[in-house]
Amino acid sequence: MDVLIRAVRGVSLVCGIVAAALTATAVVVVCQMVFVRYVLNQNTIWQTDFVTFSLVGATFVGAPYVLMTRGHVAVDVVPLMLGERGRFRLAVVATVLSLAFAAVATWLTGLFWLEAWENRWVSESMWRVRLWIPYAAMPIGLGVLTLQYLVDLYELVTGRARPFGAEGPLEGGI
Question: What does pTM read for this prediction?
Answer without folding.
Answer: 0.87
